From TrEMBL:
This is S-methylmethionine:homocysteine methyltransferase. Residues 4-312 form the Hcy-binding domain. PROSITE patterns: HCY (PS50970). GO terms for biological process: methionine biosynthetic process; methylation; S-methylmethionine cycle. It comes from Microvirgula aerodenitrificans. Zn(2+) binds at residues 232, 297-298. The keyword Transferase applies.
Length: 317
């Protein structure tokens, strides 16, 4: 993982297509994720379904699959009675499932036309995801950078041992956690490459209130961070956020917002209706604002990614 896989793909195409939601797609297919482990629960109960969702996203046009490790932590698995060895095995398995799906998809020659070999990104959720109390949308942890580095280090060891193409460090709510990961990569994992994306609360600020532009600027000097951007954020905020990021960094800007539906945390359900064609139309605006990597987060589906990929194909015609 000593080269930048995103730069290689963007050298061949003007836009990289990310996948869509994993956890809510698993729910749509019948999984019960009302659990502190969220999609990591399915690693234990139905790994073949995770592999199938990854393969479906590749078939829809995604250039990358993001693994089911967002909420996979030693602490979270320990609360379910798993020791460190078993937890590490499941973290590595999340990467292996995505690699198996990628290899199965790419083994069929008809999928090669006009495409680069797809990637596998190991999802690294924030410290707040382990708490399972919504802290990843607040970010006020009360931990310093050294403590956050200590939290992330052992899980990065396991994820990188499974040889993903890169890390997807996502839904980060604060600059300190982004700096912790960036420093950790530089100090302990010099061959690794990662994207870092923030959850944002409005048109200009990440979840803890820090301006996104400030966060993006602070990461510009970390060569191992190969893309920066926004995820798990309402689509209405995305154009301004992408423009702010693109004006601040030399790195490719990525964006994968939620579907546009509204989450009700009290009843743990979603309201509203998603529309793939509308999502793809919005993606045009995000690209115009400066996004080079586009996909979806919560409640997006392979249909959304298929619609974005179909539009992206017109950029090369």
């Amino acid at each position: 993982m000593t080269t930048d896989p995103i730069a290689a793909l963007l050298a061949a195409r003007p836009l990289m297509i990310l996948d869509g939601a994993l956890a809510t797609e698993l729910e749509r297919r019948g999984c019960d994720l009302n659990d502190p482990l969220w999609s990591a629960r399915v690693l234990m109960e139905a790994p073949a379904l995770i592999r199938q969702v990854h393969e479906d996203y590749y078939a829809a046009g995604a250039d990358v699959a993001t693994t089911a490790s967002y909420q996979a932590t030693f602490e979270g698995f320990a609360r379910r009675g798993l020791d460190a060895a078993a937890a590490g095995t499941l973290m590595r398995r999340s990467v292996e499932l995505a690699r198996e799906a990628r290899d199965a998809f790419w083994a069929r020659a008809e999928h090669h036309a006009g495409r680069s070999r797809p990637l596998v990104a190991a999802s690294v959720g924030p410290y707040g995801a382990m708490l399972a109390d919504g802290s990843e949308y607040r970010g006020h942890y009360g931990l310093d950078i050294d403590a956050l580095m200590a939290f992330h280090r052992p899980r990065l060891v396991e994820l990188l041992a499974a040889e993903p193409d890169l890390l997807a460090c996502e839904t980060l709510p604060c600059l300190d956690e982004a700096l912790a990961i960036a420093r950790l990569l530089a100090e302990s994992f010099p061959a690794a490459r990662a994207w870092i994306s923030f959850s944002c609360r409005d048109d200009a600020h990440v979840s803890d209130g820090t301006p996104l532009a400030e966060c993006v600027a602070a990461l510009d000097g970390f060569a191992q961070v190969v893309a920066v951007g926004i995820n798990c954020t309402a689509p209405a905020h995305i154009p301004s956020l992408v423009a702010a990021a693109a004006a601040t960094t030399r790195k490719p800007v990525l964006v994968y917002p939620n579907s546009g539906e509204d989450y009700d945390p009290e009843h743990k359900c979603w309201h509203g209706q998603a529309d793939a064609s509308r999502f793809a139309e919005s993606a045009r605006g995000w690209h115009a604002a400066g996004a080079r990597l586009i996909g979806g987060c919560c409640r997006t589906t392979p249909d959304d990614i298929r619609a974005v990929a179909a539009w992206a194909d017109t950029l090369t015609q």
